[in-house]
Amino acid sequence: MxxxxxxxxxxxxxxxxxxxTPRGEIHTPVFMPVGTIATVKAMTPDELVQMxxxxxxxxxxxxxxxxxxxxxxxxxxxxxFMNWKKPILTDxxxxxxFSLSQSCKISEEGALFQxxxxxxxSHLLTPELAIEIQECLGSDIMMVLDECLPYxxxxxxxxxxxxxxxxxxxxxxxxxxxxxxxxxxVQGGMYKELRKEYIDRLLELxxxxxxxxxxxxEGFALGGLSVGEPIPEMYDLTDFCTNILPQDKPRYLMGVGxxxxxxxxxxxxxxxxxxxxxxxxxxxxxxxxxxxxxxxCNAEYREDPRPLDENCDCYTCQNYSRAYLRHLTNAHExxxxxxxxxxxLHYYMSLVREARFAIEQDRYPEFKKxxxxxxxxx
Length: 378
Prior knowledge:
By secondary structure, this protein is α/β, with parallel strands linked by helices.
């Protein structure tokens, strides 16, 4: 994997770049649709390509449990399995360890958890196994296994967790066997001094080790954010970390977020985003538009002939009314999930495409102001 930084905006930290992988180029800033279990819910691969998706996500934890990484490997890898020809980034399972903390036990060795699928069977996810799974899947960009802290966490807990995640990061590097890219994940809770120490030690681990150059990190992710902390605190910590992270590596803010989060964090120097929000919200009738959020199941749209977004050229907005989509959503029709998801993902893709153009034209502050001026109910 190669990253080329093309431009940084003159008045902000917004960056324009290209990630080159054997399966294609990724133009940054980029939003990556989440395909947790080998599918972006309600969408076909062709539809994703048509709306401009250049990379999607898969999840180590979920694919390990079902259908199993060895099964997917036998069937030609994840790309062949799901008929997706472009790059795939796989999350290591660290967030699932966090979200399933009540049934998970963390130790030096790894995370011991009970499966919610096969009757509560116990599994031990180690840094080595997380890498093995991702390599079997054929991931283009892999993530190290880390511990994601809840919010809030005391300085002592954050320090201990940081030390564990750093040891797991080194084990992940040592376990790597293929040429797939590997990103380090920055933890440290909400404490700037810990985040700085973490970044410094990740860089030392990446650049000053005795292993071959292929065992260094190709990019860096910010983890442990969007876990309940106040949004201004997330923005502030993101801004702090991008001041320290290398300029020549992509920066990935994991699990973020709403449209205005993307706008704000691109401004703060982030290159890559993912979030389940546009697909999950769509299945419940929450629609993101150029003018704000539309809750399409509300009674006010019962006889509304307008499209979801009059400024949108997606298939849904070109062919269906709010009234019809309200009917489908309230009737729990499958088509509702399909059409609303298509729109939300199209909106996200269009938003980052417009952000890239604004950076290219060196007018990101103006673009950001225009975005907020249009939003009626952000």
